[in-house]
């Protein structure tokens, strides 16, 4: 069940062999848990604030979010015990904040922790602010090479998979707050509004259908601008990947 990529031609094969319904496996969305901006380090730009974006999502999906619960940095800094509690009782877990997710929960305390009930983990991290950079630099100075290695994206996903998490969506390298804001919004829209499984929700959020320009005249200057824009977008679009099974659904269609 450990795959770093999602391929269309594997879907029918896995569905037949493992008995996975064609539409996907339903996840109890009422058991969604979250930890957002634990140190309250993203307040400089309110529009891109993780906490504001989360509150907007809770308001938008109020019929589904009544039982969602979690912690934000405006309340207090979550303890390791609170991290473990929220992860353990979740069917879907969201971390949305600065630096790396496993900076906050030591891998040594997480590796033997049972998270079999957590089917989806959405990790929107790898963002730096001045405050988070200074805080993290101080913490990293006292860590061993092995401890730092376990916080890398692939190693973090492997540890979470070993604890029982089935689907892990995570960034591979640093990005900006607005990048995570767009992915957070688009993934939820695809998964909840359009009832897509989590794999298709991620794919539609990072690789949207291109707009047709067949009726427009394109000048050489437009081509140069488009190429430059495409090259910069690749860094953003290829950043977020899914590890594990892509078939889980937050809001399956009612039949």
Automatic annotation (TrEMBL):
<dbReference type="InterPro" id="IPR039586">
    <property type="entry name" value="CFAP46"/>
</dbReference>
<protein>
    <submittedName>
        <fullName>Uncharacterized protein</fullName>
    </submittedName>
</protein>
<dbReference type="GO" id="GO:0060294">
    <property type="term" value="P:cilium movement involved in cell motility"/>
</dbReference>
<dbReference type="GO" id="GO:0035082">
    <property type="term" value="P:axoneme assembly"/>
</dbReference>
């Amino acid at each position: 069940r450990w795959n770093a990529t999602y391929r269309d031609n594997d879907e029918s094969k896995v569905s037949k062999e493992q008995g996975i319904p064609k539409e996907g496996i339903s996840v109890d969305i009422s058991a969604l848990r979250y930890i957002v901006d634990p140190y309250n380090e993203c307040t400089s730009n309110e529009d891109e604030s993780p906490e504001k974006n989360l509150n907007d999502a809770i308001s938008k999906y109020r019929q589904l979010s009544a039982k969602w619960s979690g912690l934000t940095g405006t309340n207090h800094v979550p303890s390791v015990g609170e991290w473990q509690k929220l992860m353990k009782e979740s069917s879907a877990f969201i971390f949305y904040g600065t630096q790396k997710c496993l900076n906050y929960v030591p891998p040594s305390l997480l590796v033997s922790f049972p998270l079999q009930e957590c089917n989806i983990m959405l990790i929107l991290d790898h963002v730096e602010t001045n405050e988070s950079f200074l805080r993290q630099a101080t913490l990293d100075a006292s860590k061993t090479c092995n401890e730092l290695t376990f916080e890398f994206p692939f190693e973090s996903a492997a540890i979470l998979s070993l604890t029982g998490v089935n689907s892990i969506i995570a960034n591979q390298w640093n990005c900006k707050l607005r990048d995570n804001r767009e992915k957070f919004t688009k993934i939820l829209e695809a998964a909840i509004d359009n009832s897509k499984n989590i794999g298709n929700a991620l794919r539609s959020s990072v690789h949207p259908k291109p707009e047709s320009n067949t009726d427009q005249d394109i000048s050489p200057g437009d081509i140069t601008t488009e190429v430059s824009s495409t090259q910069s977008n690749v860094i953003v679009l290829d950043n977020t990947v899914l590890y594990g099974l892509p078939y889980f659904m937050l809001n399956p269609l009612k039949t």
